[in-house]
Design brief:
There is one protein chain. This protein is mainly beta. Helices cover 5% and strands 40% of the residues. The strands form nine sheets. Strands 5, 6, 7, 9 and 10 form a five-stranded antiparallel sheet that branches. Strand 9 and strand 10 form a beta hairpin. The longest helix is centred in the first third of the chain and has 13 residues. The structure holds calcium ion (2 copies). One calcium ion (CA) binds next to loops.
Length: 495
């Protein structure tokens, strides 16, 4: 063979095992100009010595087609130096219809099976040697009334939560729901709202202040530690992170007097917005990660000597780890700074197993951001908001605007305040294309979007909730749960 291109090992392996390869071997040998003498040592004949993958074009639907309803014709055409063996079509990373044989293929997609909003149609082609084209794709939007995709059921797990702001689930299945005015409510795994709060704090709940964050210690099953982020008027209005302990005799109630202050953040300005509030224990390092807003003083965000506009990282007892990146005066609170350049990181989420952290930064006038968390990273605020190529600034993984702009990086996704976030675990009971996805929603749109990390962080509409969502998590039973100001909405895969 004259070609010096070496197929990736996966292609070679695939060629040996593709039944189509064997079936077409004779034909390909005839068609190939250099079909003889191409035996692969130890691997049999490579069909035709074909090192050139097909190319494919998605011919329908049109890119950025919007408001699609009813049956949708999806068509693709491919070409190859020898012959196209097959074409595969996907919607949102999931194959639809049979794989077509030959150089063109059409399937019909029922748009009514999907939640309205953005979807991405893709096609790719293979040749007999296992060569695979890139994806031909179209970002489109579907219309309709669904609130969850086919194969899922949506229900309200619990209603009547007043001004909920954040939630966490204990290993025993109970949900701890923080409410802005200071109460932590317990919801049983079955969805019963206990009448007596776990505790009620005295908070300043004006504007975006109040009780706005909750996390359970990784050892909660043994120690009953509940961490809260709240605005207190004590000693000048400021945000505080404290640890409380559940009463061993009645774990639905706090042990009176158990509060241990983890951190008292500096005094707030008169502005009542941008308090952050995200609380999360790193699964790999056991550290407490805290999202702190800029308190409407944007210039603080890039300043490593201030804790506003940051992700902070503490030890579980409130001491500061020695390996944080920006420490100049040992023992000072800014030594807790782990990442900077954030405006209002209201939620954080970590992928089970990998430790991958997503920081959801609520934007100002233009953009909402999902950022990949990294030690010492600068996310750009206030010099940049949304997509950026500025050196030294970590651009968002995904950002979407406040006004819909289908041709822009957000596609058909828009909203006013990003609300994260939950990684769907690899062992969950959602279908395979959903596993490893990152789910987020938006305070204003109520659209639950999933990011397909395996497809370059493509965004697909998954579901919708009414009201104003403020948080997401994947429950112990594998359901996706969305907390709104009043309700926990449950998305479960149906058998
Ligand atoms: Ca080929
Ligand atoms: Ca940014």
């Amino acid at each position: 063979m004259g070609s010096s291109v070496t197929p990736p090992p996966a292609w070679r392996t695939g060629a040996r095992h593709l039944s189509a390869a064997a079936a077409l071997l004779f034909t390909l040998t005839l068609l190939s100009a250099c079909g003889g003498g191409s035996a692969t040592p130890g691997g049999g004949n490579t069909p035709g010595g074909d090192n050139q993958a097909p190319s494919v074009t998605l011919t329908s639907p049109a890119r950025l087609a919007s408001g699609l309803t009813g049956p949708l014709t999806v068509s693709a055409a491919a070409s190859d130096n020898i012959a196209v063996a097959s074409i595969e079509i996907q919607v949102d990373g999931q194959p639809v219809g049979n794989t077509g044989s030959g150089a063109s293929h059409t399937v019909t997609v029922d748009t009514a099976a999907y939640t309205p909003g953005q979807h991405i149609v893709r096609a790719r082609a293979r040749d007999a040697a296992g060569g695979v084209s890139g994806w031909g794709s179209a970002t489109v939007s579907f219309a309709g009334n669904r609130t969850e995709p086919a194969g899922f059921a949506r229900s309200d797990l619990v209603t009547g939560l007043g001004n909920a702001t954040a939630f966490a689930q204990a290993p025993d299945g109970r949900y701890f729901v923080a409410t802005q005015t200071g109460a932590v409510r317990i919801v049983t795994a079955a969805g019963a709202l206990l009448p007596t709060p776990f505790l009620t704090l005295s908070v300043d709940a004006s504007g975006e202040r109040g009780l706005i964050g909750v996390a359970l210690h990784p050892g909660f099953a043994n120690n009953g530690f509940v961490y809260l982020y709240y605005t207190t008027a004590e000693g000048g209005t400021h945000n505080r992170i404290s640890r409380f302990t559940a009463n061993p005799a009645n774990p639905d109630i706090v042990s009176v007097g158990s509060e241990v202050r983890i951190a008292d953040l500096p005094a707030l300005t008169g502005a009542t917005n941008h308090n952050g509030g995200a609380l999360h224990f790193g699964r790999l390092d056991g550290k407490l990660y805290v999202g702190v807003g800029d308190n409407a003083v944007a210039s603080r965000a890039p300043d490593p000597t201030q804790v506003f506009g940051k992700v902070l990282r503490f030890n579980e007892d409130g001491s500061i780890p020695g390996d944080n990146p920006f420490c100049t005066t040992a023992g000072s609170q800014p030594c807790a700074v782990w990442a900077l350049g954030l405006r209002n990181p209201y939620t954080l989420a970590e992928q089970p197993g990998s430790g991958r952290l997503h920081i959801n930064d609520v934007g100002q006038n233009s953009w909402e951001e999902v950022n990949l968390g990294a030690r010492a990273a600068n996310y750009g605020w206030p010099a940049s908001e949304g997509p950026t190529s500025t050196p030294g600034v970590v651009a968002p993984l995904f950002s979407y605007p406040h006004s819909i702009d289908p041709a822009g990086p957000g596609g058909f996704v828009s909203g006013c305040a990003v609300i994260g976030g939950a990684f769907y675990p690899a062992d969950g009971n959602f279908a395979a294309p959903y596993r490893g996805n990152y789910f987020f929603t938006d305070l204003c749109s109520g659209v639950v979007t999933r990011l397909d990390l395996a497809n370059n962080n493509a965004a697909y509409a998954f579901g919708r909730v009414a009201g104003s969502p403020v948080g997401l998590l994947v429950g112990l039973d594998g359901a996706l749960l969305v907390l709104t100001r009043t309700t926990i909405v449950r998305f479960a895969a149906t058998p």
